[in-house]
Amino acid sequence: MRKRTNVVVDIGNSKIKSALFEGDELKSKIQTYRLQDLLDHYGFGSHQWIFSSVNNSNQEITEIFNQESHLILSRETPLPIVLNYDTPETLGVDRVAAAVGGSYNYPEKNVLIIDAGTCITYDVVSKVGAFEGGVIAPGLQMRMKSMNHYTKRLPDISEDWSQIMLKNLGKSTRECLLAGSFAAIVHEMNGFIDQFKKEYPELVVILTGGDANYFESKVKAPIFADFDLVLRGLNRILNHNQ
Fold first, then answer.
1. pLDDT attached to residue 12
2. Contacts of residue 68, Cβ cutoff 8 Å, sequence gap at least 6
3. In the Cβ-directed half-sphere of 107, how many Cα atoms lie within 13 Å?
4. What's the pLDDT score for residue 87?
5. Cα 177 to the chain's mean position, in Å?
6. How confident is the model at residue 45 (pLDDT cuts 50, 70, 90)?
7. By the 8 A CB rule, do 98 and 208 touch?
8. Are 81 and 213 in contact (CB under 8 A)?
């Protein structure tokens, strides 16, 4: 018997990421900028769909996919983990999906999920399957752009920072800006990992997000890089609701 196929869709601030799952196996994935492209790519009527959106596109999802069997992740959606969070109505659905993915991949383990995207989130899921909370910090480009935006003379290096030499002590303003953005994130990640390891023994650290590849080799602690963690979490949530 053929396994049920799921299409999971993560609508971010800039791109739409999606994947086709057969059971728990990720078969293929694409990125696009338009929801309609997903129907054109995956076809009609043959899949179960789940959507996670951080940019208030739920009405558009409903209009385009009203004939398809779909679930829009929200605070009312039943989850395979517990949210030990004071304001669950404000918790980003991408953070929820990543937490579910981390808990599913490492059951009965304390997990720290570092999602390096527009913002960097540090979220802990305990070994009993509870989302315990986290930290939200500015992402790489946000730091670079903000120093330009809030000053009169500092340049914006967010588009060409990879062409600048990273040094412990910058010898030019652009080098100093890079050290204050990129290197500071590395120190921040290492600091939070050390902090949470004291509270949660045998902590498993997962790095994900669009900027994760920049930091994968820079973090001193052993980590597991999973660039599809949110997609895997969405698939797990959809299966939980079938």
1. 83
2. 39, 44, 45, 47, 49
3. 3
4. 95
5. 25
6. confident
7. yes
8. no
Confidence band (pLDDT; 50, 70, 90) for 14? confident
Average pLDDT on 22-40 reads 91
- The answer on pLDDT for 3 being more than 70 is no
CA distances from 157 to 98, 149, 173 (A): 30, 11, 10
pLDDT computed for residue 44 by the predictor: 75
**Cα Rg of the chain, angstroms:** 19
Within 10 angstroms of residue 206's Cβ, the number of other Cβ atoms is 22
Known catalytic residue at 226: no
| Whole-angstrom distance, CA of residue 92 vs CA of residue 71 | 16
Q: What is the 3-state secondary structure (H, E, C) of the chain?
A: CCCCEEEEEEECCCCEEEEEEECCEEEEEEEECCHHHHHHHHCCCCCEEEEEECCCCHHHHHHHCCCCCEEECCCCCCCCCEECCCCHHHCCHHHHHHHHHHHHHCCCCCEEEEEECCEEEEEEECCCCEEEEEEEEECHHHHHHHHHHCCCCCCCCCCCHHHCCCCCCCCCHHHHHHHHHHHHHHHHHHHHHHHHHHHCCCCEEEEECCCHHHHCCCCCCCCEECCCHHHHHHHHHHHHCC
Q: How confident is the model at residue 58 (pLDDT cuts 50, 70, 90)?
A: confident
Enumerate residues 6+ apart whose C-beta is below 8 A from 154.
Answer: 147, 148, 173, 177
221 closest CA partner among 175, 186, 183: 186
Q: How confident is the model at residue 155 (pLDDT cuts 50, 70, 90)?
A: very high
Task: Pick the catalytic residue from 94, 123, 211, 226.
Answer: 94
